[in-house]
Amino acid sequence: MEKLKHFLKTTAAGRILLIPYRFWFGAHYVIPTFKQLLHWTFTSREIDNFTYDLTALNRQYLIAFVATVTHQPVGDVQRYIDEIVHDQALHDHIVRFTQQAPERYIADSTAKYSRRIGWYAFVRAMKPKIVVETGTNKGLGSCIIAAALKRNAHDGAPGYLYTTDIDPVAGYLLQLPYSEYAKILYGDSIASLNTLSQTIDLFINDSDHSQEYELREYETVQAKLSPRAIILGDNVHCSSKLWEFSQRTKRAFLFFQEQPLHHWYAGAGIGVSYHL
Ligand SMILES: C[S@@+](CC[C@H](N)C(=O)[O-])C[C@H]1O[C@@H](n2cnc3c(N)ncnc32)[C@H](O)[C@@H]1O
Q: Ligand 1: distance of its center to the CA of 27 in Å?
């Protein structure tokens, strides 16, 4: 056996003979993903902005991530994540309005929040007065943020969300009671951000995902950020702009990578820019 191993490792013939072994080694990683892709193709309706849960370990890492950035005890952040994961009213709201929407043929009538549970935990931990999310889409993130603001208000720390979208019919999920805590600003995001006079405590970039536009959003809100403001970037798994912006403005930067549960998608993440 040792002689065979030596032969495979040290000869050109060994290099050729190892090709099937190497193929099967890699295939063990790729085949489960391919099976998930096949299953998803016939069971999901989504065409973009995919939704899924996070693996249990990934969720724990997200809790540690939020706790580190917000300087909150891990136990408190764990409680916030438990809150959103077990929020039956929000779950039922998402399912009901998805099933009623004209766009229901390209949306799944399930409530899976992926990295947005991290957005929820940031809002609960920070108790921001003003949150801005660019890119409303269906309004999934907006409802989740509004659910956190609703709880904050109940705890005596009210806040409000402005969410922007260029699509005039965006935001079908953002209905009462969540719409009480949020307003959709329709039109180009940069134009909407320019009209905002409020100081922003939490800014979430999730609109036009070109790197140039993403950077323009950060530059547009820069002077409107409160001293404790946190920026979350939804494009950071494929764009360096938030990291570069953080370097230039002397802000700390971290990135959390998602691990989707039972999904072919490799996951996006949460980039965070903040003052230490
Ligand atoms: C990735 S989706 C947002 C997802 C949403 N934040 C969520 O939590 O599900 C991006 C959205 O940005 C919007 N968008 C694209 N370009 C925009 C622009 N220049 N200004 C405002 N919204 C824009 C699109 O219409 C789309 O609905």
A: 36
Ligand 1 atom nearest 119 alpha carbon: 8
| End-to-end C-alpha distance for the chain, whole angstroms | 56
Would the pTM of this model clear 0.90, i.e. be above it?
A: yes
Distance 235 CA to ligand 1 centre (A): 12
Strand-pairing partners, residue 165, are 186
Number of Cβ atoms within 10 Å of the Cβ of 8: 15
> Consecutive sets of 10 residues in the chain, 276 residues long: mean pLDDT of each?
95 97 96 97 97 98 98 98 98 98 96 98 98 98 98 98 98 98 98 97 98 98 98 97 98 98 97 97
Q: Which structural domains are found in the chain, ordered by start?
A: 2-40 (no CATH), 53-274 (3.40.50.150)
